[in-house]
Amino acid sequence: MDISFTSLxxxxxxxxxxxxxxxxYRTGLVKDTLIAALRMTAQxxxxxxxxxxxxxxxxxxxxxxxxxxxxxxxxxxxxKRTNLSLRQMFVPITIALICSVAIIDIYFMGLIVRQDNLxxxxxxxxxxxxxxxxxxxxxxxxxxxxxxxxxxERTNYLFRLANGASAHEARSPFMRDALxxxxxxxxxxxxxxxxxxxxxxxxxxxxxxSDPDVAIxxxxxxxxxxxxxxxxxVLLTLALTHHKIFNKYEMPI
Length: 253
Fold this sequence. Notes:
The protein is an all-alpha fold. It has two domains: 1-57; 60-245, no CATH class. Helices cover 80% and strands 0% of the residues. The chain is built from eleven helices and no strands. α4 packs across α5, α5 (86-112) packs across α6 and α5 packs antiparallel against α10. The longest helix has 32 residues, at 121-152. The radius of gyration is 21 Å and the shape is globular. The protein starts with a helix and ends in an 8-residue tail after the last helix.
């Protein structure tokens, strides 16, 4: 069943609830929330209109270009949410995201779905979008944790180096904290999936008329692919941004 624009407007009233409490507790997130909701709406309607033409054209280079643009936007969002330098971090983070999504896309499309055309629009764009969206969340948490803790515990890091630890050993506790905080929510979601939560991809496929068995197989493979791609992207992002934060003596700049 379609959702009318009147029903859509009624649905938008739900945002009053979180907005009220964000304002009540002076979080400073009210403006960001409203802007994000409006951007999401405009962007989704535009992409819906655009994808109709992309499905008809089904050009591999156009699909790849679109994924690169998505990676660039994701990179910009990660940098904004982690308060890092856009000029310094944009290129390495974008490269990390593109490499990560490319690895998983080729594996997923070639070995799991077994598409003859790896860049088939109906598969390539939605799957890449889901993977990039989850990468974004994981990277924001990981980079905030890793570089945030490193700034706060700079003395601890230097103390480890002074006592003979290698740079890798001195940074290991910060890396461990970043990985735990980034992937605990995903692991928790996977553990209760099907019991507490019915995931969006599976639900969407079933509502669209797909057989539940098919929808379940896609959901399982997508969750594993998303988890793997997010971990790869976090490791690549931290590796490629390393020289922007540390000098040649492994000292934080």
